[in-house]
Amino acid sequence: MALRARALYDFRSENPGEISLREHEVLSLCSEQDIEGWLEGVNSHGDRGLFPASYVQVIRAPAAEPPAPAAGARYANLPPGGFEPLVPSAAFNPPVQQLPPPAAAEPFPLPPAFPPAPYSGSYQPSQGSDDDWDDDWDDTSTVADEPGVLGSSYPDYDAAGGGGPASARYRLSTRSDLSLGSRNSQQPGHPHHHPGGGAKSSATVSRNLNRFSTFVKSGGEAFVLGEASGFVKDGDKLCVVLGPWGPEWQENPYPFQCSIEDPTKQTKFKGMKSYIAYKLVPSHTGQQVHRRYKHFDWLYGRLAEKFPVISVPHLPEKQATGRFEEDFISKRRKGLAWWMDHMCSHPVLAQCDAFRHFLTCPSTDEKAWKQGKRKAEKDEMVGANFFLTISVPTGPAAALDLQEVESRVDGFKSFTKKMDESTMQLTHTANEFARKQVTGFKKEYQKVGHSFRGLSQAFELDQQAFSANLNQALAFTGEAYDAIGEFFAEQPRQDLDPVMDLLALYQGHLANFPDIIHVQKGALTKVKESKRHVEEGKMEVQKADGIQDRCNIISFATLAEIHHFHQIRVRDFKSQMQHFLKQQILFFQKVTQKLEEALHKYDSV
């Protein structure tokens, strides 16, 4: 019998030779022997390639394949009860790659070793001919070093112009309940080691076995477990406040907008290389700068890596060919305008240093651009340290109820699933209707117009003077229907295309939220585990309280982001539907006016 395996988690391929998996999908294995933590097999689509061995469970006996989810549903493979933690249950006992249990004498078990992932970050800049990094825009010295030890002392902060005296920086740490001293005191042979004693200090919250999960890669797990430590500047603080509807991001005290205008084709290297530059004019500076798509792409990558609990809007899709065509340039500019509007409207993203550098650095000052780029790439407030920058309300009135938080997040997950399905359906319907207007409706109306003109030409053979006005009226009616056909062909650009642009932007947001929710769900799982340890007398209450406090920070941020999404969604769809209906009214008024003109031609017959 052929070897088979069942996928335990979703996996999206991002490198050549890999294949994507869906949870519960059954695969055929080429071999049970893994290659540095990777297996080779064939998925249900017939694609053959590599995938992480830790993502699947080998099936030893024949098993029926579960029914496939509905096509096109991004969330179809998620369990109906909500996001389940990626930590296998206690009953899970994979038949292959069994991890040896930690030594009995080790009270603080270290995480099991896992093969390195083929990619290191959550975001990989897309590749395209119009976005290659040029030698004059960057050089090898601008590549950021890997972040150092979490507790680094920022030796070059003041020298780099970070600004401010040392008192403007605050060292925050979540290591109080996992200090090195307490760890060492539990090691066999340590002078303060007491074998068999101290039951409350012998248990810790376990780490996720799936080291590829968003909860782990985002730094959420390390933060909740108390392993984050670093200096937080005043300018890095992100404040969550209690509003009338619950937690929300503190408003930007200096709101602004930024227009994107005049995309122009420019050349370099004496005309050997061409590119499109967009003029950006921020309202708070009034100074225009020019940016290429690759600059947008770089900024998106930095923001997506830095803010794991914030939905960074997706950029318009890239295109390798036809990127200098007028229609494509116009469509991309409109997509970038929507993207910029959402960036400026977000209280956190709008105040990010990298975004400010992107908007204000003069286009001609290459040195200043590279310095700001290096600074953004060496930002140490990423990963687990990012969560140190979040400031949340305190006091009894601000206490979060875990069950209520979980219920609200589960409700939002159901909402995003339904919204995703409906936006995909509306996009398909609008696209099909626009196609009919551009081709089918135009053709049909012009056929009617041609027929009326044919009748007019036939009547002209009569040569009767009293029929001349009728012949002219019939000819004008044919021309009116030709014009109406053109109206239909041009109309989608005025009403349907803007709706589809908005839907595309929100489909990007909806694709972000499963990862955001997964981070919050992972934190809740750690709280439940710590409470169970306390009830069993295996963990001190103080340590469990620290885990819950840090989970509350993630929950506050998640709820604030959900609130912002709903707030901006109501604003956008109200504005866009008003625009759509106004354009529809103007369109039918034009059609009516044309028909009335044709009607009046018969008054003189």
Overview of this protein structure:
- The chain is α+β, with helices and mostly antiparallel strands.
- Helix content is 41%, strand content 11%.
- The chain is built from eleven helices and 13 strands.
- The protein has helices spanning 180-184, 214-217, 220-224, 293-306, 326-345, 353-360, 366-377, 402-459, 468-490, 496-535, 541-600, and strands at residues 4-7, 26-29, 38-42, 48-52, 56-59, 169-173, 229-233, 238-243, 246-249, 258-268, 273-282, 289-292, 390-391.
- The strands form four sheets. The chain has a five-stranded antiparallel beta sheet, with no helix packed on it. A three-stranded mixed beta sheet has the order 9-8-13, covered by helices on one side.
- Strand 3 (38-42) and strand 4 form a beta hairpin.
- The longest helix is centred in the last third of the chain and has 60 residues, at 541-600.
- A 1,2-diacyl-sn-glycero-3-phospho-(1D-myo-inositol-4,5-bisphosphate) binds at residues 292, 294, 332.
- It is a peripheral membrane protein.
- One of its GO terms (cellular component) is plasma membrane.
- Residues 173-187 have a biased composition (Polar residues).
